[in-house]
Amino acid sequence: MIIFRKVFQLQDWIKARRNEGLHIGFVPTMGALHQGHISLTEGSKDECDITIVSIFVNPRQFNDPQDLIKYPRPIENDLHLLLKNEIDVLFLPEVEEIYPADQKLNLDFDPGLLGSVMEGKFRPGHFAGVAEVMYRLLTIIEPDRLYMGQKDFQQVAIVKKLIADQHLQARLIMCPTLREPNGLAMSSRNLRLSPQARIDAALIYATLTESQKSFENDIPIEEIKQRAMETLTRKDFKPEYFSIVDGTTLADIGNKKDSRFVVACCAVSVEGVRLIDNLIWTKNE
């Protein structure tokens, strides 16, 4: 595995690989890697000649400064995992490589409703930071394929729009969420949960699956959401939202007939650790 810290060195290497006719897959991460991230790299390795992983804790997408400070950075573990899984390239830049002081990033991008609901509502400024870093990474690397996880469904929707609006070449591949045996979505933030909270947090996925049964049994949407919020309100749990939306527009749906692509998304704070999850209920696009 080759490690690049400088943009120009990475781009020179990529140019040489392009001249050889090789296709490049890219997996952007913020480190604290787990099997969910590795599943993204496996998708890339299956479909591309070269797999590049980036580790960059993007300061611009943290609306809470404490969240940035607390974000886990186990770089030695990350390196071991990437080496074990035979990743070709790791891009490990400092902040000034991504956001040079002498260059202003003039990104003209408005995600619209995609960026103002759910995470956009509860984390103001978050998606502006996501769009900036993804635009930078995609213009630096110019991958053929970009691999992202379904767990960050709203982020995937916004990056898909970013690629289209900015006429970037990458094809975005959304990979299924990997879960712990109890159903908890794999996340770097899980490292901050106590052992008991990690067990209890299985309630999030259980609520999504039970709510899907209610949806299939024609229980009214508002009642499903209310029940879910009540279920997720317990000791050490603080739900922020439980939304049932159209998977393309992220607009709330009022009943089953409003959309052929229905996704339930939620955010819950467990022991002060903010966790998100989602489940695709129907997809007949």
Automatic annotation (TrEMBL):
Entry's localization field: Cytoplasm
GO cellular component: cytosol
Main location as per UniProt: cytoplasm
Binding site for ATP: 30-37, 149-152, 178, 186-189
One Pfam family in the UniProt entry: Pantoate_ligase
Enzyme class: ligase
Family matches, as InterPro entries: Cyt_trans-like (IPR004821), Pantoate_ligase (IPR003721), Pantoate_ligase_C (IPR042176), Rossmann-like_a/b/a_fold (IPR014729)
UniProt keyword terms in alphabetical order: ATP-binding, Cytoplasm, Ligase, Nucleotide-binding, Pantothenate biosynthesis
Listed GO biological process terms: pantothenate biosynthetic process
Highest rank taxon of the organism: Bacteria
SUPFAM superfamilies: Nucleotidylyl transferase
Enzyme Commission number(s) of this protein: 6.3.2.1
Catalytically driven reaction(s): (R)-pantoate + beta-alanine + ATP = (R)-pantothenate + AMP + diphosphate + H(+)
Binding site for (R)-pantoate: 61, 155
UniProt pathway annotation: Cofactor biosynthesis; (R)-pantothenate biosynthesis; (R)-pantothenate from (R)-pantoate and beta-alanine: step 1/1
Function: Catalyzes the condensation of pantoate with beta-alanine in an ATP-dependent reaction via a pantoyl-adenylate intermediate.
Record family assignment: Belongs to the pantothenate synthetase family.
Oligomeric and partner information: Homodimer.
Name of the protein in its database record: Pantothenate synthetase
